[in-house]
## 1
Amino acid sequence: MVDLGLYNFIKNAKAQGKSKEEIFETLSKGGSNQELISEAYTAVETNKEPEVSKRTDAYGMPVTAIRKFFTADRPTLITAICGYYFITWLLLILQQVILYVMYSGMGGVSFAQYLTLNVVTIMMLAAFIGVVGIWFMKRVGLYLYTISQIGSIVYIGAQYMESGISFFDPQLLWGVSFAYLVPIVLIVVGFRYFKRMV
C-alpha cells in the first residue's frame, strides 16, 4: 500500500517545482525507505490516489476510539459545554452512589428499586447519552437531550404542583431558569449547528 505521508510530501514537492532527485534525496535523508519512496513517487506520477485505510485519517494517522473522541469536528462552544457536563455528571454519579448506599443502609432498598423510584436518575442518564451524541455531532443526541430536559422540567413542575406550589411561582420560575441556563444554551447552540450534525 502506498504510504500516504510520502505521497502527500512528493505531491507537494512536485507542485513546488522540485526535481525527482531532490525529492528522493530529501526523503532518504529523513530515513524513508527507497522502495516506499519509489512506490509513492510512481503513484503521484500516474495520478493514482492511494487507498486510505478506514483505520487512518486523511493524514495517515491511526484513528483510535480515544483519538476520535477528542478530535471530532465540533464547535468550540459545544466542546466546552459537553466537557463541563462530563465533569459535572461524574460528580453527580458519585452523589447518586452515596445516596443509594444511605438508602440501602436505612431500608434495605435494592439498587433496581432505587433506580426505578428515582426518576431524576433516569432523566440524567437520558441527558448524558444525549450529550455524548452531541459531542459526536449526532442529531439523535440533540433530540434525546432536548426531550430529556423538557421531561425533567415537566417532572419538576408536577412535583411542585403536588406540593401546592404553582409552577408559575416567581421563585420557582427563577430557580428553574437559572438551573436550566446551561442546558438551554447547549440546545440553542446545538440547533445552530444542526446542519453540521449527521
## 2
Amino acid sequence: MVALAHATERQEAAGSAAVIACLWIVTGDARPRQSAVRRQVGLYGGEMLEPSGMPGGASEGLLAATRLAREHGAARVIWPVHAGVPLDPESLDVERAAGIVERSLLTERLAAIDDPDGVVIETPLADLRDAQVAELAVDQAVPLQHAWWWGSRGEAAEASRERWERAWQAIGCPLPDVDTSTNAGRVDLPGRSLRRG
C-alpha cells in the first residue's frame, strides 16, 4: 500500500493519469490480499487490471504486468516488494534485495525484446527495511485499515500483523489495536513524531 500511495503522489505531481494496479498474488490464501488491493486501488483512485489466468511466479507475473501496462498506455510497472527481515525491522536481507532488483531488470529486458521503448519496472521499496517502510507509511498518512492483514484472521495475517507491529514500534509509533472481528473504522495515525535513534 505504501508503494501505491507513493506512485499516486508521483502521478499527481506530474499531472498524469491515475495509477493502474495489476492484481497478481500467488502465495498462500490470496483472497484477503486481493480484496485489500482492490480496496487500496479504489482508495487512491486507480484502475484495477486483472490478468487472464494467474501467473505461476514473480517473473511471469512481472512479465504479464508489463504487457498489461503496455496495452493500457502505462510507462512503468511498480513492483511493491521489499527485503526487510520479518523478525528485525531494522535489518535488510541484502541478497533478497539484490535478487528483487535483478529479477526486475531481467524481466524488463525480456519485455523489451517485443517493445524496445517498453515499460520500465520500478522497485522503490526493494532495499528498505521494515522500519523504513513504516516511516514512509506515516509520512504518506497511509490508512492501515486497508492493509490486507488488518482485521483478517489466520496464521499469515497474524504473522504479518506482528511483523508490522515490530516495525511501527521501532520508529516509536505503535500500531493502534487491531480488532480482528471487524474490518470497520478508520485508523488515524499520529503525525510525524518519529523517534530517531
